[in-house]
Peptidyl serine alpha-galactosyltransferase
Amino acid sequence: MAFSFRKAGQPGTLTRLLSCSEEAWAELPEPDKALSDDIPTHRCPSYSHHPRTADFYPGINKPVAVADWLAHTDVADEDYILLIDADMIMRRPVLPQELGAAPGTAVSGFFGYMRGVDNELALRHVPEVEPRMDDVAGPVGRRGDQVGGFTLMQAGDMRRVAPWWIKYSEDVRADPLAWNLTGDVYAHEDEPPWIAEMYGYSFGAAKTDVWHIADRTFQLYPGYEVGPEHVQSPPKVLHYGILWNVTRGAVPEDFQFDKHWFEQFDALSCPPWQLSQDPHRSTQGLFPHPPPPSQLNRSSGYAYLRDLLSIEVLATLNAAFCERYRRVCPASEQLEVECGKAEALARELDEAFASFVPPDACLLYVCDSLSN
């Protein structure tokens, strides 16, 4: 994140919000603690096990961390706050005025499955909110916006929203009927809804009269189909939360990546590394190198752009790791070889993006015909 923040040319300062109990912090290895010296970090209390209800719900750490940070930080010099997840990569600068953010108007991603903003769930929790009569961020008549993923909000608005965000996250989580009202296809009866925090945010914003512009091209999940809109308005953030794959042009098998395969991965240890091209066996150093653009099917139009965006995730992650390894690790042949591959891939990828021509682009040819 810090690497891509700088590469994208994002104005402002980056702060890592780290939800961690004192006991867990004491047990962390020293290299993990040292990251707080590299990246400005605010440590927040962990509510994974809620101290009042004992509910196990790591998702609530997000609003708790934001509220704790705002309570202990002077952000008077910052007009806007951009809140994004750790499994996101920034590609382009985020400028509030360019996206339409203003006091009372936030910008976020559109999540149409949040049907609870317009059914009994909203009536159970925010009946006092006047229904919205526009369809900018959800259906007409809603009592909250169908948004999530990231938030760009005026700092004063965020201070007002944060405590309500916590409250409604707790309330929806404890609602015995919520599981069938949220729109979450993975919800089960008698289980608290996992996306309670998303409704906590939506209802909390509505309660404080903060509404949203739902931006449909700001973020993209690698592997999702792309089209002309992603050329006209390229994604500013890649959110690598799910499995994706790319097909190499002359190679029959796909290359796949899923962050969930790497729960034991150590991105802080210096060489020597035991590297593997099998992602299920890769545990340290660098992630498996993805295929370079030259191995992708260039004739597949927007599918080619989709695959470029997918491999950009690993190209950025590995380039970021190598930046740190070159700074803190002793020189070694393995570091030079593997990081040389990663850095060459990042350069090739930049060139591929620069030369990409959409399949439906209008091309102008000028012919000079001379006659004797």
About this structure: Residues 113 and 183 are 5 Å apart (CA to CA). The mean pLDDT is 91. Residues 1-215 form one domain. The first strand starts at residue 16 and ends at 19.
